[in-house]
């Protein structure tokens, strides 16, 4: 059974904006999972990476920032706990303590550097997707009669934004 462009967009929207798994998004729209996977793969080859768009949408909604804050909090606490344990280890030679602390500091610095390198690209896409969502919410609130028309334009425009910034 052939599915139209509207169904493909609905699966993409459920995956990207509703943050549903691909299998759930496909089931929601009555599409076989294999078809949804093919659409996702074809879109990626055409420059519309659904995973990047989904990540950007998560950032636009604040989800990734919260996860990053929690993760960094855990890492900082664990780093401090490990440093305390090394310092308190009376049976550990001083040279081994220095080596363990240096390794811990190196790992921590590499993690922080990787995080900073990855975030600019995703952040730029997240801001763009956030503006699109903000505009759509504004139109729905202040000009509800135009909501459907604006949504019809903004969903494919979101794909263009992903191709440009993703």
TrEMBL record:
Pfam family, one: DUF1804
UniProt xrefs under InterPro entries: Phage_D3112_Orf24
Domain of life: Bacteria
Protein name per Swiss-Prot or TrEMBL: DUF1804 family protein
Source species: Denitromonas halophila
